[in-house]
Design a protein that fits this description.
Length: 239
C-alpha cells in the first residue's frame, strides 16, 4: 500500500527541485514559474518565461533536451513541455528580478538599472515597487541600496495576498550582486475606502404663462380705455 503522506511529499519535492533547476538554467530567459500536472498521456509541464524563444531554442532543440533531462533526472513520465509568456511580465517579481540581474551583468550601473525597473513596474499599474541591490556596489566593502516607490506592505493580510517577492543573483567581475524585487499588485486593498458621490437632483421650476384678456386703464383726464385680448383699445369718456 502506498503511503499517502510520502506520495504527496515526493510530488512537492519534485516540483520544488524542477522549479529551482529551471530558475538556475533559464534565468536569462526571464523565467517566471512552472506548473506540473499529470495527464493520461504523461506529464504536462507548463513553463512561463518573459523570453520563451530562449527556452524553445532553434528548431526546438533546447526544449527537446530539457524534456530528456526532466524525464531522466526528475522521474517525470513522458514530459510534454509548453512554454508561454506571463500575462503581464512587468507585474511578475521573478521576471523583473532576473531581468535586472541580466542588465547588471551587461555592465549597466545598478542605480540606473534599478530606477528603470521600478519605472516599468509602476507603468504596468502596480501599487508599489521596491528594489534592493546588495554587494560591492560602490566600494570594496559590501553594502546594500534600497529604492522604493508607492505602497509596499511589510506585514498583515496585504503581504500575503498582494505582494510578490523574488530574489536573483548577478555574477560580475567585482563579485556577486544580490537583487531583490518586491511588487504590490494592483488589487483592491483592505484599508482603501471608496465613498459614493452624492447626486443632487435639481427640480426645475415650471413657469406658468398668464394671459391678460381685459385691462381697464384710467388716465389723468378721467378717460377710461379697455384693452382686449387682441390688443385693440376701446376709449370711453368719464362723464
Amino acid at each position: 500500500m502506498v503511503d499517502i503522506k510520502k506520495y504527496f511529499l515526493q510530488k512537492s519535492m519534485t516540483r520544488v527541485m524542477v522549479d529551482e533547476f529551471l530558475a538556475k538554467e533559464y534565468y536569462n530567459a526571464e523565467y517566471a514559474g512552472s506548473e506540473i500536472s499529470k495527464t493520461p498521456m504523461g506529464t504536462r509541464v507548463t513553463i512561463y518565461a518573459g523570453r520563451p524563444a530562449i527556452i524553445i531554442g532553434k528548431d526546438g532543440k533546447t526544449i527537446k533536451r530539457l524534456a530528456q533531462i526532466l524525464e531522466r533526472y526528475f522521474n517525470l513520465e513522458s514530459p510534454q513541455i509548453t512554454v508561454a509568456q506571463p500575462e503581464k511580465p512587468e507585474l511578475n517579481a521573478r521576471v523583473m528580478a532576473f531581468r535586472l540581474a541580466v542588465t547588471l551583468e551587461k555592465g549597466y550601473h545598478f542605480r540606473r538599472a534599478a530606477f528603470i525597473t521600478i519605472r516599468k513596474i509602476m507603468n504596468a499599474g502596480a501599487l508599489g515597487a521596491e528594489v534592493i541591490v546588495s554587494g560591492k556596489i560602490t566600494s570594496e566593502r559590501a553594502k546594500f541600496e534600497k529604492l522604493k516607490e508607492g505602497i509596499v506592505y511589510k506585514t498583515g493580510n496585504g503581504l500575503d495576498v498582494m505582494v510578490d517577492r523574488a530574489i536573483a543573483i548577478a555574477t560580475l567581475k567585482m563579485g556577486i550582486y544580490g537583487v531583490q524585487v518586491v511588487i504590490t499588485k494592483p488589487l483592491r486593498t483592505v484599508d482603501k475606502i471608496l465613498l459614493k458621490e452624492k447626486t443632487e437632483t435639481t427640480s426645475e421650476s415650471t413657469e406658468a404663462e398668464v394671459r391678460v384678456t381685459n385691462v381697464r386703464i384710467i388716465d389723468e383726464g378721467g378717460n377710461i380705455s379697455n384693452t382686449t385680448a387682441g390688443g385693440e383699445e376701446v376709449g370711453q369718456k368719464n362723464e
